[in-house]
Amino acid sequence: MNIHKLWEYKEYVNVNGMMLSSELISLLHNSLTMLQVENHFLHVQYWGQLYALDADYHIAVGINRDALTDRKYYYTTDFKFWGLLPKSKKKYKHLALLTTYPFSGDPSLKIKVLDEALDENNPDRCPVMKEESRLAATISNICDEAGICARGQILKQPDGTIVINPNYYGLTGSEAKLLKSYLHIRTPQHRWNTNLLTRQDYNYSMDFLDSIDQDIPSGCWNLSLEQNGSVVYLKSLYWPGMMYFHKVRTPEAGFLYVGNGRKNLDVPFLL
Amino acid sequence: MKFPKTTECRHWRFTLVASKSEKLDQEGEEEQELDLEEDTEKPRVVDLIEHNGYFREGGYGLPDSECYALYIALHMLAIKEPISTVRFFGKIFGTKMNYYVAEVDLTIEELDRRIREFELKDMPGEEGLDEDKPPDAGEEQKELGGEETKEEKPKVPVPPKLPPLPKSTWTPPIPIPVERPGQGVNKKVFYVCNQPGEPWVVLPDVTPDQIRVARLTVRCMTGDLDAEVLTFPPFEGTERNYLRAQIARIHASTSISPQGFFTFGSGEEEEDIDLEEGGGDLAFSPNPYYRGHTLKDLLDSNLTYWVHHGRYILKQGRTLWWNPNAGMDEGVEEEEDEGPVPIPPESGPMLFTPLSEDARIEGLPAWSTRISSTLVPERALAVLRSNIWPGAVAYSTSGKKSECLYVGWGLKNQPPNFSPLQLALPQDEYIIGPEVMEMADPTFADEEAYRIAHLPPPPPPELPGEGEGFALEEEEED
Fold it and tell me: Does the record carry Acyltransferase as a key word (chain A) (predicted)?
């Protein structure tokens, strides 16, 4: 969520009963504006919260020229110092999915991932991961699978750079009810012509991203209309705690994750 | 622009509530003498707006628009149904629609009526249900079978002789009786609606078997009360029963309050707690002498200052343990040789057990405490978040305010992840014995050894000379 609009979005945010309190918004607004000025970011967004034992992690994203690749993630527990998260490695992204115990709240803590090495009676050979890497990997996993935007919110320009659409005007009421109007914010995984040609009214600059209606199983995204159909909420069953809202026919939209950072593997049983 | 149906619906409700409140006002003016009596009869609606304000301060709660509509809807419910108190329990998400759940205490008259109804229906059935029903079905089948054979007799000349069909030796376990309305898991009545403003629908009472099955499964609500529930241990009932069972589980484990906030109805009865009848089912009420705790105590991570006020549901699916042998004692005379095996009574934590006794999950305590404000400690309040039922929260100020709320999917956090119940092992078709056991095929050497061992005894030597000669011949051939 754009940090400069947090006060306006306050009423729309509703993730599993979690809402933004006034104090949290004031703190975020102040400290993230500082972060934006110091690092010369075009956009700064509040990404969400990851529960830990003692104090929760708050995550922010700084976006520069390229909206897909030029992203920097920051974390804090006290809103005074925002630490830059390392780039997530593929190895850690895999290990983060295996780790089930909660975050401790100490980024320098080294944790042992209990994988198959434990079964082979080699507990010493279990891979070790710093909590900071786990945090980065978890965030990157969530972004890959649950980071979404409405169609048209992110544009590909003729020179290949990807930008956040400054003139975005929102989806119409009927478009907003379709899962096809929402796209993954990630490097596309499907072929470019699949994404383009499954639409009648395709547009080269908008439809280069994967749409979420192709995710498996088909019920894993939950779309609901609230406030008499004026606000659309999207929730992922795989990542409970993730929320995306969009106010129909306005540029107001935002993504938020508040949760323990664990993927829900029970989705096939839930449906 | 076309408004959705709910908007009209809500508008109609608003007018209805408005007219009702006007009427109450007028009555109040006309009959001021009767005011006191009316006050006692008026249903009490817990002030959702105030509590939501506190929750919002702590970072949880509902959006204001939703909260206000709900508050009106709760009043609506209180006007229409025979209710003494209404409380907002929470919101449960569904794949198509969400549920808003109201928790309700019935008026005494209505409760008495329901208990009488329940006793009429079920008390004779408790003996009748488990004994009458299966034989009934059996008899019907027999009758049907008998008729069929009678009809077929002239047509079929000689029925082929078949071995008798194997009989199932499995007997269904004795059903655990349902707790009566106003007791245990059915102490409260729950009403749900999909949108604040839609008519409230009452949920049926929950049975122990439904709780047992709900504990073994995970499932998302759909938002349709009549949706089918397809789970592996088969669930008896539709989604309204499943929803009720989940609410009962959530209610039992996430109803918490600061120590001393509630107190037993009357202190004298505390001795009776261990008694079987009514034990642990004592009524409790807000403590008028509650003074509040300091924030430091409430935020203590040991959580000794927070207690459960939801009754623990035993493995049986009841809050009061039911002795399966109690009914058998009467029938023991007939089958004395069997003798009921004494079953140790299940017991759970008592009411008002501190949260520090809660089980931890994977090193994570069952509840996390947070303070709402670090900047202004005077205004701050303590917020607890459940890690077992994600979405359950409770707050308490250092004064006398406390409340809990659930907004979530109705799913329990069970790390590492859910694994469905395994199918029971198939029963043996035959008694295991040497005839049906599989064993290794004999090798050629085994067969040869067997043949040699079972050779007919060699004929007795008749003439030694011939035998020698035969042997000699063989040697010569070699």
Answer: no
Judged by CB atoms closer than 8 Å, whether chains meet at A14 and B62 is answered as yes
The string of DSSP letters for B306-318 reads EEE-SPPPPTTS-
Residues from chain A that touch B61, judged by Cβ atoms under 8 A, are 17, 19
Q: Are A112 and A122 in contact (CB under 8 A)?
A: no
pLDDT tens digits, one per residue of A38-76:
999 999 999 998 988 878 899 999 998 888 888 899 999
Question: Closest approach of chain A CAs to the CA of B307, in angstroms?
Answer: 21
Which residue in A31, A228, A265 has the most chain B C-beta atoms within 10 A of its own C-beta, making it the best mutation to test that interface? A228
How many independent structural domains does chain A possess? Answer: 2
Helix ranges (H only) for chain A are: 6-9, 22-39, 90-98, 116-119, 131-146, 173-176, 192-197, 267-270
What is the value of ipTM here, to two decimals? Answer: 0.88
**H/E stretch holding B242:** helix B239-254
Could you tell me which chain A residue has the CA closest to the CA of B420? A269
Q: What is the DSSP letter of B59?
A: T
Q: What is the DSSP-derived secondary structure letter of residue A74? A: E
A268 touches chain B (CB under 8 A): no
Choose among B243, B237, B248: nearest CA to B184: B248
Contacts of A100 in chain B (CB under 8 A): 362, 415-416
Is A170 in the B-facing interface, judged by CB distances under 8 Å? no
CB-based contact (8 Å) between A48 and chain B? no
Rounded Cα distance between A197 and A214, Å, is 14
CA distances from A151 to A41, A219, A246, A255 (A): 23, 20, 11, 14
Residue A40 and residue A67 in one domain: yes
Q: Please tell me which residue, B221 or B271, carries the higher pLDDT value.
A: B221
Domain end point (choices A116, A146, A176): A146
Contact A269 B218 (CB under 8 A): yes
How far apart CA B128 and CA B122 sit, in angstroms, is: 9
What DSSP state is assigned to residue B181?
Answer: T
State how far residue A222 is from chain B, nearest Cα, in angstroms.
6
* Residue A205 and residue A156 share a domain: yes
Give how far B167 is from chain A: nearest CA, Å: 35
A262 contacts in B (CB within 8 Å)? 415
Q: Of A126, A146, A166, which residue constitutes the final position of a domain? A: A146
User: What digits encode the pLDDT tens for the residues A152-205?
Assistant: 899 998 888 899 988 999 888 888 888 889 999 988 888 888 888 888 888 888
Range of the domain at A17: 3-146
Same domain, A116 and A223: no
Contact B276/B323 with Cβ under 8 angstroms?
Answer: yes
Backbone angles phi, psi at A159, to 5 degrees: -85, 5
Same domain, A45 and A138: yes
Distance from CA of B387 to the nearest CA of A (A): 9
Q: Which residue reads 């922010």 in tokens?
A: A60
Residues A45, A98: one domain?
Answer: yes
- Prediction pTM value: 0.79
What's the CA gap between A261 and A103, in Å, rounded? 8
